[in-house]
Amino acid sequence: MVKLDIHTLAHHLKQERLYVNSEKQLIQRLNADVLKTAEKLYRTAWIAKQQRINLDRLIITSAEASPAECCQHAKILEDTQFVDGYKQLGFQETAYGEFLSRLRENPRLIASSLVAGEKLNQENTQSVIYTVFTSLYGNCIMQEDESYLLQVLRYLIEFELKESDNPRRLLRRGTCAFSILFKLFSEGLFSAKLFLTATLHEPIMQLLVEDEDHLETDPNKLIERFSPAQQEKLFGEKGSDRFRQKVQEMVDSNEAKLVALVNKFIGYLKQNTYCFPHSLRWIVSQMYKTLSCVDRLEVGEVRAMCTDLLLACFICPAVVNPEQYGIISDAPINEVARFNLMQVGRLLQQLAMTGSEEGDPRTKSSLGKFDKSCVAAFLDVVIGGRAVETPPMSSVNLLEGLSRTVVYITYSQLITLVNFMKSVMSGDQLREDRMALDNLLANLPQAKPGKSSSLEMTPYSTPQLSPATTPANKKNRLPIGQQLAAITAWDSSATSLTAHITLVTPFGG
């Protein structure tokens, strides 16, 4: 009887051991799958953001970037493959990995260096800003990266906007480090996409249904939209009282339609305030708190800056180009609808500036039909509450438990970032953070990174060959700087900082 019980126990223990081993193997396979999926996510996000920057470069600075160049760069990005960077950087990989890791963990130094670079008129400042977001902070996919970037933005408010003679003009120009980083951050923030979709999808779809006419409110521009024959048919003889009366009637009708449309947008804005992103709310409240302490700035001007940040830099771009923000995907936007969306965006911005001298006098009649506090009430909700020093944790953290151990950066971006920091160090604009930057740069090799000093890299953003002039049999002979990108990995859990570097080749060969 005892032997039977021992035999049964041994059998059960063996079965349990097999079960435990099987579960361990399953968990290991699942962990490996998670890591592979996360790696794929990081790489896809890197490529997608580079494509978005490439598109913006074509749209905004089309004079400097030809369609052929941007199409070529888009094709290069599509074919990107990622290869270990130590094959290019060799033993220097560890030094550069440590440099990037410690720079990433010092948001104050990044902010002060960017501001110093702008004051020194460094020509690569904008590309370094893109590198900080896309590479150093990995497009803010991870919670830790988002927290670091929010701190960078807070320090930029203190070092850049607070110290500016005209911070509102600097902000609205959209070319300062704070504006660029805020745009990159808000465009990729998941909670921001949810808010914009919830707020704008329904009113935009209603506008698309009712896009029969241009809602023009300027009488002169309204007349120009019609041929002489159409003008006579619609308004009568030009110059007559009847002509002016009919034109004014159409202007009044368009104004009434625009007011109704804008009121719908404002209604949905108020209705969805509850899901406004906590990260953006924290940034706006930090701006209000910091700039309200500046003696030369009135409270009204600070509120106007916060409203500019919300509308001109976040909401209105999504109103005008909803397809770029994923708000609509199945409805085409024709020229009439695009014009009307621009009218709505313009009115929303004018409402934000109600009471300001900068208001457009041509829209005064339309603005008089709105509640003066409609946008102010939304701003009060956003900046209201206690302004805490610590950035908020994301309410939607789909990657909880994961930590990023790799940074994707092109070779030319790495060289540009290092040279930028060295230029800032040699200048006289960096003060309190000078020692911290000096300690970082002191550990870097003096020679250019790479196994071969003869291997010259060209910036990925300046292709030397365009598709129109590149023979088909030479398509794989582009300058290597356009084909390679470095990936620097650090192990933050190790007691001593280690690094591993990888390179990217679009053509796999």
Features:
509 residues, mainly alpha, 61% helix, disordered C terminus, Rho_GTPase_activation_prot, GTPase-activating protein and VPS9 domain-containing protein 1 isoform X6
Description:
61% of the residues lie in helices and 4% in strands. The protein has 509 residues and is mainly α. β3 and β4 form a beta hairpin. The protein starts with a helix and ends in a 5-residue tail after the last strand.
Concise overview:
This protein is mainly alpha-helical and about 500 residues long. Helices cover about 60% and strands about 5% of the residues.
Query: What ranges have pLDDT less than 50 throughout 5 or more consecutive residues?
Result: 452-509
Query: Which structural class should the secondary elements be placed in?
Result: mainly alpha
Radius of gyration: 28 Å
Order of strands, widest sheet: 1-4-3-2
Give the CA-based shape. globular
Largest sheet: 4 strands, antiparallel
Count, helices: 21
Approximately what portion of the residues adopt beta-strand conformation? under 5%
Task: Please describe the topology of this protein.
Elements: H1 2-60, H2 67-78, E1 82-84, H3 86-89, H4 93-104, H5 107-119, H6 125-136, H7 143-161, H8 167-173, H9 177-188, H10 190-209, H11 219-224, H12 228-235, H13 241-271, H14 278-291, H15 299-320, H16 335-352, H17 364-367, H18 374-383, E2 406-410, H19 411-426, H20 434-442, H21 480-483, E3 485-490, E4 499-504
Antiparallel strand pairs: 1-4, 2-3, 3-4
Organism: Odocoileus virginianus
Biased composition (Polar residues): 451-473
Protein name: GTPase-activating protein and VPS9 domain-containing protein 1 isoform X6
